[in-house]
Design goal:
Elements lengths: L3 H20 L4 H30 L23 E6 L7 E4 L5 E4 L3 E4 L5 H13 L8 E7 L3 E5 L5 E3 L7 H7 L11 E5 L7 E4 L11 E4 L5
Parallel strand pairs: 6-10
Antiparallel strand pairs: 1-2, 1-5, 3-4, 6-7, 8-9, 8-10
Length: 223
């Protein structure tokens, strides 16, 4: 791709030259028409330059992601484990894992879609399903018992699967994996978020948060 700064300079030079030529036109009508045409060209050129700038920005390091403010803000996903309590129903209360289809199977409630919901939303969904059966006015509480794990590989001493906790950063994950190897690039990291098919590049100048199910890859530095 052409360098946006060199493109902008060439564009500025061409427009400046055209503006000078307009000033030397003797016919006033022709001068006005030329100025109007030049204005349109400038507007189109500016729009094109902005497009180039946006395209160049996509190659930059991504900003650090934000973390859920509390466990209640967390969005559930496959392989998360939830702790369910239905007051007065000990046979239903217990821990349940969200399966690979994003559902949780609860006695008397059946299969409930859990992926994409917060714990409060799942409470309402389970209560609504139980109310359709023999449970009268069900009171339901759901909390996360165990978050799905994250994965770290590349230039760390112990790559693999690790348990997640809220507030975890990439440097925390690296420490859990035994630290960087001597070949590691300690200035950036590649992260593929759960559900995404592409990696994003993050600078380690600031804390980079990890989410359940993330795949972290520490690259090798170039000597």
């Amino acid at each position: 791709m052409r360098n946006p700064s060199s493109h902008s300079f060439a564009l500025f030079a061409a427009i400046s030259s055209a503006a000078v030529n307009v000033l030397f036109l003797e016919d006033t009508v022709m001068q006005q028409r030329a100025l109007a045409l030049l204005t349109i060209v400038v507007m189109l050129a500016t729009s094109g330059t902005s497009t180039l700038s946006c395209a160049a920005a996509q190659d930059q390091v991504q900003p650090a992601a934000t973390s859920p403010a509390s466990p209640g803000d967390y969005v559930l996903g496959p392989n998360d484990r939830v702790r369910l309590k239905v007051y007065g129903e000990p046979d239903i209360s217990g821990e349940y894992e969200i399966d690979n289809t994003g559902q949780v199977s609860v006695p008397l409630a059946g299969h409930i879609r859990a992926a994409g919901l917060t714990t409060k939303e799942l409470e309402h969904a389970i209560a609504a399903a139980l109310a359709k059966g023999i449970v009268r006015d069900p009171r339901v509480n759901v909390e996360v018992a165990l978050y799905r794990p994250y994965y770290i590989l590349g230039e760390v001493k112990k790559s693999g699967e690790y348990p997640y906790r809220l507030g975890l950063t990439v440097l925390d994950a690296v420490a859990s994996a035994g630290g960087f190897t001597y070949r590691a690039n300690e200035s950036k990291v590649y992260v593929r978020r759960a559900g995404s098919g592409a990696e994003q590049t993050y600078s380690l100048d600031t804390p980079v948060l990890v989410y359940p199910g993330d795949n972290i890859r520490v690259p090798e530095r170039f000597f």
